[in-house]
C-alpha cells in the first residue's frame, strides 16, 4: 500500500493541513503490513508514534477487561488509534492482515502548529511559495524543538527576525561575544575553527540548520566562525528570546540527588570539561568528551541510554545537553556542576540506599 498526501488528507486532524504540509508529512510516514495477533502497543506503553488503521481490524484490550474494536475500513480508521500516552489499552491485530500507518507524534504536532500559525493574517513569515517554507520543515526535524510546548513554537516563529546575507559574509567570528542564535532560511554556510595550521572547515550547514547556540548557553565567546557560502536569508533570535523560549524546555536540569538516581539506573555520565580538568578530578565512571569535541565524537555515546552531562558549573553542560537533544538523545544537565555532585556523593555514595 502506498502512502500519498491524499491518503493523509482523509485522516483527522491531518485533513486540515495545507497541501505543502501534507507533502512534508508524507515523507515521515511509514505503512506496515502486519498479520493477525501482532501487538501494536501495550497498555501502559509510552512511545513516539501516532498510528492509524488503514485496513483490517484491531482489537483493544483495556486492563479492566473491556474491549473495543477499530475497523480500518470504516470511519474509525480516520482517527488515530488510542492516541493517549501512556497507552490505555493493548492493541492487537484481529484480522488476517492489517495496514498500519505510523508517524512521529511530536513532528506531526509541530507541523500542525506551524500550519495553523501561518493561517493567522498577522503572521509575518509565511511565504505562499511552498519551496520557500522548506527551511521550516527541516527545522521542525530538530529533535530539540520537539520538546517545545506548542505555545513556545508559536513564540519562536513570531520572534525570529529575517535578515538577508551575501556570499562570503561572516555571520559569526570565532572569539567574538554572542548576540544571536541563527536558523538558515536560504543558502549554505561553513563552520571553521582556527587551528595551528590556519582555518579549518569543520562542518557545512544547509537550509533549516541552526547555529550560534554554544556561546549563548556557555556564556562565553563564539567557538567557531560561520560564513555564508552563498547569498541567502537567515532567521535570527536575540539572546534574550533564546534564553526565554528555547533554553528552558530544551535543557532538562537535574539536581545532584536526581542525577545519582539516573546514574544508578544506568545513565551514561558525560564530563564535558577539558581533558586537564577531567584528569584532575572527575565523577567515578564518567567518560570525558570536551564540549568542543562533542559534535565529532557523538558516536562514542550509546543512543539508547540516557546521558547525564556535567561540567564545572553547569554552563558547558547546558550547551552539551542542547547539542545532544538536537539529535534525539535524552539528556540531562547537572545543576551546580561537579562540586554539587561531589557533595551529594559524599552524602550518598553509589550503592548506598540514600
Ligand atoms: N563541529 C561543528 N559542527 C557544526 N556546528 C558547529 C561546530 N562547531 C561549532 N559549531 C557552531 O558554530 C557556532 C559558533 O558560535 P557558537 O560558539 O555560539 O555556537 C557554535 C555552533 O553553533
TrEMBL record:
It holds the Pfam family cNMP_binding. SMART domains: cNMP (SM00100), RHOD (SM00450). Gene3D superfamilies: Jelly Rolls, Rhodanese-like domain. Residues 13-129, 144-246 form the Cyclic nucleotide-binding domain. SUPFAM superfamilies: cAMP-binding domain-like, Rhodanese/Cell cycle control phosphatase. CDD domains: CAP_ED (cd00038), RHOD (cd00158). InterPro entries: cNMP-bd_CS (IPR018488), cNMP-bd_dom (IPR000595), cNMP-bd_dom_sf (IPR018490), GlpE_sulfurtransferase (IPR050229), Rhodanese-like_dom (IPR001763), Rhodanese-like_dom_sf (IPR036873), RmlC-like_jellyroll (IPR014710). Its main location: cytoplasm. PROSITE patterns: CNMP_BINDING_1 (PS00888), CNMP_BINDING_3 (PS50042), RHODANESE_3 (PS50206). One of its GO terms (cellular component) is cytoplasm. This is Cyclic nucleotide-binding protein. It comes from Ahniella affigens.
Amino acid at each position: 500500500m502506498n502512502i500519498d498526501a491524499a491518503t493523509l488528507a482523509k485522516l483527522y486532524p491531518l485533513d486540515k493541513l495545507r497541501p505543502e504540509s501534507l507533502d512534508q508529512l508524507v515523507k515521515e510516514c511509514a505503512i506496515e503490513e502486519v498479520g493477525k495477533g501482532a501487538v501494536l502497543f501495550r497498555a501502559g506503553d509510552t512511545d513516539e508514534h501516532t498510528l492509524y488503521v488503514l485496513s483490517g481490524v484491531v482489537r483493544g484490550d483495556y486492563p479492566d477487561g473491556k474491549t473495543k474494536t477499530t475497523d480500518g475500513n470504516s470511519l474509525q480508521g480516520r482517527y488515530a488509534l488510542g492516541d493517549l500516552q501512556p497507552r490505555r489499552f493493548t492493541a492487537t491485530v484481529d484480522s488476517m492482515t492489517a495496514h498500519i500507518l505510523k508517524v512521529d507524534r511530536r513532528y506531526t504536532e509541530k507541523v500542525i502548529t506551524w500550519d495553523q500559525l501561518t493561517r493567522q493574517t498577522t503572521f509575518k513569515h509565511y511565504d505562499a511559495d511552498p519551496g520557500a517554507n522548506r527551511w521550516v520543515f527541516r527545522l521542525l526535524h530538530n529533535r530539540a524543538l520537539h520538546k517545545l510546548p506548542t505555545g513556545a513554537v508559536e513564540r519562536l516563529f513570531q520572534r525570529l527576525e529575517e535578515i538577508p546575507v551575501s556570499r562570503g559574509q561572516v555571520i559569526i567570528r570565532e572569539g567574538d561575544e554572542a548576540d544571536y542564535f541563527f536558523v538558515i532560511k536560504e543558502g549554505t554556510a561553513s563552520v571553521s575553527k582556527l587551528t595551528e595550521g590556519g582555518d579549518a572547515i569543520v562542518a557545512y550547514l544547509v537550509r533549516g540548520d541552526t547555529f550560534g547556540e554554544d556561546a549563548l548557553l556557555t556564556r562565553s565567546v563564539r567557538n567557531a566562525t560561520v560564513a555564508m557560502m552563498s547569498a541567502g536569508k537567515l532567521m535570527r533570535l536575540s539572546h534574550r528570546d533564546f534564553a526565554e523560549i528555547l533554553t528552558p524546555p530544551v535543557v532538562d536540569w537535574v539536581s545532584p540527588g536526581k542525577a545519582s538516581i539516573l546514574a544508578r539506573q544506568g545513565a551514561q555520565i558525560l564530563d564535558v570539561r577539558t581533558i586537564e580538568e577531567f584528569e584532575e578530578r572527575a565523577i567515578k565512571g564518567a567518560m570525558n568528551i570536551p564540549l568542543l569535541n562533542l559534535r565529532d565524537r557523538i558516536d562514542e555515546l550509546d543512543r539508547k541510554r540516557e546521558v547525564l552531562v556535567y561540567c564545572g558549573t553547569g554552563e558547558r553542560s547546558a550547551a552539551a545537553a542542547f547539542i545532544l537533544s538536537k539529535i534525539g538523545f535524552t539528556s540531562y544537565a547537572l545543576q551546580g556542576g561537579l562540586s554539587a555532585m561531589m557533595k551529594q556523593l559524599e552524602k550518598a555514595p553509589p550503592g548506598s540506599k540514600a
